[in-house]
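Trying the structure run again after the queue cleared.
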Amino acid sequence: MFRTHTCGELRISDVNTEVTLSGWVQRSRKMGGMTFIDLRDRYGITQLVFNEAVNAPLCEQANKLGREFVIQIKGMVNERFSKNANISTGDIEIIVSKLDILNAAATPPFTIEDNTDGGDDLRMKYRYLDLRRNAVRANLELRHKMTIEVRSYLDKLGFLEVETPVLIGSTPEGARDFVVPSRMNLGQFYALPQSPQIFKQLLMVSGFDRYFQIVKCFRDEDLRADRQPEFTQIDCEMSFVEQEDVITTFEGMSKHLFKSIRGIEIVEPFLRMSWQDAMKQYGSDKPDLRFGMKFVELADIMKGYGFLVFDDAAYIGGICVEGAASYTRKQLDALTEFVKKSQIGAKGLVYARVEADGSVKSSVDKFYSQEVLQQMKEAFGAKGGDLILILSGDNAMKTRKQLCELRLEMGNQLGLRDKNTFVCLWVVDFPLFEWDEEQHRFMATHHPFTS
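Done. Tokens:
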């Protein structure tokens, strides 16, 4: 038997119990004639104690252990003199009587810690080491718990989980297909599914009125923070229902997940917003409503005063950042560089500070009188100490998306995007098609059956 207990299991009630543990060396500390080893597995950390006065050869063996060595120990559970409230096993330690090295390890290229010193590229190269970190492990555990809860919830509502094929014929969807050449039919190709849409439609007409699948999907798209070539989705379909039935079912599932996974009970109905309003007010079909900064359109106020950037623009819009008038010129220049990055693509940024006395000082003062700037201030509902940030462009939708990125950046800088705060939203009435500037044709915004 390689272990009798895990490294996160032992408690004060286990004192004087002989145990066998196996795991990875997290760190070691030598203090006088004592050596302390933190032994880690995915369940937690347990402190091991080696005493040179009691067993010098064993202590010498422990002193040669490096980080990420895989070891097995036998020993007696002992109450710790100096307890550690930060770990679940902090009341006990193991007085080791036997040590076996199961696998020696080279020094890892980065620390196996929550705040590691390894960059993204390095951690991806040594992914098997990165997966040992608590933060990554917790994400996988969360994903596991969610899939269990999703299956349980939908099963109780009569949904049937059905696996659908991965090698399919190409169907018109919202992105490019990944293709797989056919060995049996030269010159012909399979496509990897962007979604199981065709198959779940077949299930519906076959009488399987409630289907779901936790399924891998593939889309040949450029990499972005919210777009990957392959991803997993909770895929569902229902027959004999209307939009309200679908929303009610999956709003209930979302509330169930919040309660069972995070211990958060959401009583109020989710907010609802049309796609048109979401794009107009936030520049995104998944707006972050944890903070304000709703877009204000300014073309009627700011055009016609000789500032060609605005006079020639198809869209002029901005956000009001409460209490940010104290931003320095250096900070504002950094924001300008942020929106000019190739990933965002704006040509520049106009800003205006609302002073304590209500007057407005802007980066384009020479074009606008105080009267016009006051109209702009009123449009935002701005007050003393606020900062107004404005973007313009010859494509309204593109400029709104740029302004969205600026809004999110300000939310990050001001600490308004708290990961433990949740505002749930249904975005409804999505368009069926949108114009693709690269291909000069209309493309499905999402799969035609689901828009």
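The longest strand covers residues 18-31. Worth checking whether this holds up in the mutant runs.
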